[in-house]
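Much of the work behind modern protein science is quiet bookkeeping, done one molecule at a time. The fold becomes a row of whole numbers, each drawn from a learned catalogue of backbone shapes. The protein below has been through that process, and both of its lines are reproduced in full.
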Amino acid sequence: MDIFSNHIFDWLMLLGVLGAAFYTLKVIGQEKTTFKEESYEVQFGNLSLDIPSWWTLVEQNNTQLRFERTDTKYEWYALYTYIPDHQGKSMPDLLEDKLNLEKIEFDMDVVFETDSRVAFRDPKIQEYFQEMIRVEGKGSKNEVDRIYYDIYLMRGLDDSGYFIFESKSSVLNGALEGPYFEESLACLSFIRESQAGKA
């Protein structure tokens, strides 16, 4: 009894951490079965995105959407960005510029992919986004912070701009939101004219 009473604060801290971990696992476990039913639509330019219900839209303007998890508080965000001018640069050059700007360096074993791994469900989107590059894997930011980073750069036909879709988290949380980030891209569609007229 003396041992317990001498360390009661430590025991309470341990129980609190275990309780928070259990809650997080329970919430995440339910998400796989509720994504389809509980996703919500967000319009981004002339695109429509299906977003998981547990992602919170924390920033929105004409050229960028930012989502975070405000329920579990773990380190993660997703950014959907439109850059209006590619300045005649290739996708690899634009990617290099982005990585340099963010001071992100991927690990040596990470593969840069120029073929589309997004299985777009909308044939019009599949036809439109014919130029793309993607990188996903572990890396470092500012040479010291270990991260898990998934980034797509896509350019549409006859578009002077391009899109950057990115998901960034700590290494430990890298696999948690990745499938839903990919799903949000797979569900991309153009806003129907009737919807656009209402907006």
